[in-house]
Specification:
single chain, 336 residues, UDP-N-acetylmuramoyl-L-alanine:D-glutamate ligase, 10 helices, globular, binds adenosine-5'-diphosphate, binds ligand LHLMWEOZ, ATP-binding, transferase, PfkB_dom
Length: 336
């Protein structure tokens, strides 16, 4: 059964709007960042990572965002270009804003944290007027990412992109991507996340991210069914609730739920799981696969990325994901 109806005859498969930043992942791992002396630089930002993943799967992609007018901004643009991502709507900031930095601390495979430097971040300077309607008009899917709602004018740019997507029939996916350090309060976050989510066809988030969205609601048991059920009264066709190593559950308008286990992985860092899962799942849905197969594909893609030092660089090809699934099914990969 297909829960999503993709528009036909579009030039692009996938467009995302939001954060373009730099990941600086500690090279000296299994120790606190106070003891780290060197980092490896990667392109980062959840929507950027997801778009890179979709491009690695062979889809025709583009990005809507703003980069700093400096070496980091040019590094990001060059990397997206090398990954065949259309940049016509990646705008260079002229206000002196800087590139957001995400320092990743890897104390252990299960104890990782991110230190984000996002003061005066260029990505939050994107204005509604800079969002190109013609780009959104030619895509099958538009992805929005929650952190882009954190400050104006980026907030208004996202809502304008949503208006264009609705007008031109694009399927809208919302990766909740909640990063507390970019917001002033959970209350503010909940208000804007809920306003955006009402317009979205596919919503992906962790239990904790949905709990934040329910700040003003009553769901004391943190019931996934209660959470998902609310969104089918709006535009949602699929609500994905991720539970880390315990897997993920997809809820659909017909009242069904679809469950996926996680695969074993030799975890280097837990970051990157959500972005690669989102890329794999959305790719599967766009191929017309069942939700179970799409969730399995996303889960395997996540394992490949969390078994790697990077996020964007480690985004796998479809062949690599299929191979990972087969190797797991042959018992060749065990968790560590
Ligand atoms: N330790 C792990 N081992 C194997 N798979 C994992 C692990 N952590 C996450 N995953 C996979 O990645 C998916 C998303 O991870 P999760 O941590 O829930 O989201 P996020 O990274 O957005 O917080 C999970 O549903 C699961 O399939
Ligand atoms: O999104 C960011 O600004 C940081 C990301 O680039 C980083 O790779 C990360 O945290 C990935 O997020 P996740 O996939 O939700 O774990």
């Amino acid at each position: 059964m297909s829960y999503i109806s993709l528009p036909e005859s579009k030039e692009l498969d996938f467009v995302a709007i939001g954060r373009l930043c730099i990941d600086l992942n500690a090279n000296e791992i299994h120790r606190p960042m106070e003891e780290t002396m060197t980092f490896t630089k990667y392109v980062g930002g959840s929507p950027a990572n997801i778009t890179i993943g979709m491009s690695r799967f062979g889809l025709k992609t583009a990005f809507i965002g703003k980069i700093a007018n400096d070496q980091m901004g040019r590094f990001i643009a060059d990397y997206l270009r090398r990954n065949r991502i259309e940049l016509t709507n990646v705008v260079t900031d002229r206000t002196g804003a800087v590139t957001g930095l995400a320092f990743t601390e890897i104390k252990s495979p299960t104890d990782c944290s991110i230190l984000m430097y996002r003061d005066n971040a260029a990505d939050l300077q994107l204005t509604p007027g800079e969002v190109q309607e013609e780009l959104i008009a030619k895509t099958k899917v538009l992805l929005i990412s929650g952190t882009a709602l954190a400050k104006s004018p980026s907030r208004e740019a996202v809502f304008q992109a949503l208006n264009y997507a609705k007008k031109h029939g694009a399927v809208i996916a919302f990766d909740l991507d909640y990063r507390p350090y970019t917001w002033t309060s959970p209350e503010e976050t909940a208000v804007y996340y809920n306003l955006a989510a009402e317009k979205c066809d596919i919503i992906l988030g962790t239990r904790e991210e949905f709990d934040m969205m329910e700040t003003f609601e009553h769901n004391p048991e943190h019931s996934d069914q209660v959470t998902a059920g609310k969104w089918f009264d709006y535009s949602a066709k699929i609500v994905i609730i991720k539970h880390g190593k315990d897997g993920s559950i997809a809820y659909t308008q017909d009242g069904a739920d679809h469950r996926a286990k996680s695969f074993p992985a030799k975890v280097v860092k837990t970051f990157g799981a959500g972005d690669s899962y989102a890329a794999g799942f959305l790719f599967g849905v766009m191929q017309g696969w069942t939700l179970e197969k799409s969730m399995e594909f996303g889960s395997a893609a996540a394992c490949i990325v969390i078994s790697s030092h990077s996020c964007s660089d480690a985004m796998p090809t479809a062949a690599e994901v299929h191979d990972y699934i087969e190797r797991c099914n042959r018992g060749e990969i065990t968790a560590s």
